[in-house]
Design goal:
single chain, five-stranded antiparallel beta sheet
């Protein structure tokens, strides 16, 4: 009896080991899975608090690595080199967090005998293409040898433009997954945006965020030390395969409209996003706090009759107290009030105003982003 039990336990251990060997995930931070198999061969990579929430990844608190293309950094490369227990056919996937924002990122698959280039778009914020963060994106299926002679490299030299024109132009090195292919059916990568479209997007988006009378600052990834807000509902107009709508995630604030004067302010961020999508209207987020500059700005500028007309006719309005909506403030890097954030009707960020404007100053901005 004891001998039979021992045999069963032994078989369970063996089968468990075989199951584990079917999948290898390599992550880019020291606390991540198989970090010893990650390396950066050239360029300038930096720590980030952003982290993919794809299935099997480590907790988001470990972060990832990135290159900021807006700083004019030199060509950079990072490598994921698995220790494969056996030769065979492997499906290879990659993933990145919400802050990935670059078109035409080069992935090189080195099989030990040849190299193949796959171009990918990192669209964590969405924009000109659907959001594709926090899921495993297929790179392809390859015949790989046992050992460590095969690897996947991420290179930044070919990146042109960014899908979201407001957030920073960053390439993320987060995680790569190698899975034994047991079906014979190969996985294929998504088709990236054409290089010509990427180039035109780069030009048009820079123009779109050029400051006028207002002072704008581009959206960043979550501030250092802040958690990545994966559970915030910023929807994509056409979610990528495997993504589900995040509208159901509750955040601070009641769902009912809160009238302020004659302006139909909402106090719920998820409801504002849903209302913008339903009505096809741009969304204006007003981050405020009791008293001081925020209250004066609301009274003297936002409640001016001509501004009220523009707001009520053209925008879904959402008023958020910064003390009661910390998670949303962290997400939009709002530390003080007043701040206005403009979103399009699908919830994508377009621009922001960080300064107190007069009626004459704000009217052109409201006209521009309505």
């Amino acid at each position: 009896m004891l001998k039979n039990c021992a045999m069963v336990i032994l078989m369970m251990v063996v089968l468990s080991g075989l199951a584990i060997s079917q999948e290898i995930i390599i992550e880019s931070r020291q606390e991540g899975k198989n970090y010893k198999n990650y390396s950066e061969t050239k360029g300038s990579w930096y720590d980030s608090t952003a982290k993919s929430a794809a299935e099997g990844c480590s907790p988001e608190t470990i972060g990832s690595r990135y290159v900021d293309l807006e700083k004019g950094v030199p060509d950079s490369e990072a490598r994921f080199t698995p220790e494969l227990p056996q030769a065979g056919l492997y499906d290879i996937f990659t993933t990145w967090g919400r802050s990935g924002n670059a078109l035409q990122v080069k992935y090189i698959v080195n099989t030990g005998t040849k190299e193949e280039v796959v171009m990918m778009d990192q669209a964590g914020w969405g924009g000109t293409i659907p959001v594709n963060a926090n899921v495993w994106i297929p790179i392809g299926t390859y015949e790989l040898p046992a050992g460590t002679s095969a690897y996947v490299a991420i290179q930044t030299s070919t990146a042109k433009g960014k899908p979201d024109g407001v957030n920073l132009n960053r390439i993320y090195s987060d995680a790569v997954k190698f899975v034994v292919n047991t079906t014979g059916t190969k996985v294929t990568p998504p088709t990236p945006a054409p290089a010509s479209a990427a180039a035109s997007a780069q030009v048009s988006t820079s123009a779109a965020v050029a400051p006028s009378s207002a002072q704008y600052s581009p959206f960043n990834a979550p501030a250092p030390g802040q958690p990545s807000p994966f559970n915030l509902p910023t929807p994509a107009p056409t979610p990528a395969a495997g993504l589900t709508s995040p509208f159901a995630v509750p955040l601070a604030g009641p769902a009912a409209a809160v009238p302020v004067g004659v302006l139909p302010w909402l106090a719920s961020y998820p409801e504002a996003i849903q209302s913008g999508k339903t009505a096809g209207k741009s969304i204006l987020l007003f981050f405020t706090s009791p008293g001081g500059a925020a209250q004066d700005f609301e009274m003297n500028t936002l409640n001016a009759p001509v501004v009220k007309v523009m707001l009520s006719q053209n925008y879904v309005l959402c008023k958020l107290d910064i003390a009661q909506n910390k998670q949303i403030c962290d997400y939009y890097s709002v530390a003080n009030a007043p701040v206005i954030v403009f979103l399009d009707s699908s919830g994508y960020s377009r621009a922001r105003i960080d300064s107190v404007l007069t009626v004459d100053q704000i009217l052109p901005e409201l006209e521009k982003y309505k």
